[in-house]
Specification:
112 residues, 4-stranded antiparallel sheet, mainly beta
């Protein structure tokens, strides 16, 4: 079973940038679509970005223009570059693959 481990979260001020990473185990990473989801305090899980095996990319409207998803198949890693962070971006960020695996999450807290 694929294991996904997120890193890079933290406490930051509004307006700054942060980059999250998600390292995957296994030898079939390149064949999976990967995505990032988040859960804000007291709210449900929200899908925010996805990247297919052919590098096709989609974003939720809430992050479009501020967040960038990318992948490095040689490193079995997917990234989420988050720019101009807002307080409403606060939450636990998870990566997931198209087979249904999901990591434990990394906390992002944006203060005003």
């Amino acid at each position: 079973q694929v294991q996904l481990v997120e890193s890079g979260g933290g406490l930051v001020q509004a307006g700054v940038s942060l980059r999250l990473s998600c390292a995957a185990s296994g030898r079939t990473f390149s064949s999976y679509a990967m995505g990032w989801l988040r859960q804000a305090p007291g709210k449900g899980l929200e899908w925010i970005a996805g990247i297919k095996s052919d590098y096709g990319i989609t974003y939720a409207d809430s992050v479009k223009g501020r967040f960038t998803i990318s992948r490095d198949n040689a490193k079995n890693t997917v990234y989420l570059e988050m720019n101009n962070l807002k307080t409403e971006d606060t939450g636990v960020y998870y990566c997931a693959n198209s087979e249904g695996s999901r990591g434990q999450g990394t906390q992002v807290t944006v203060s005003s």
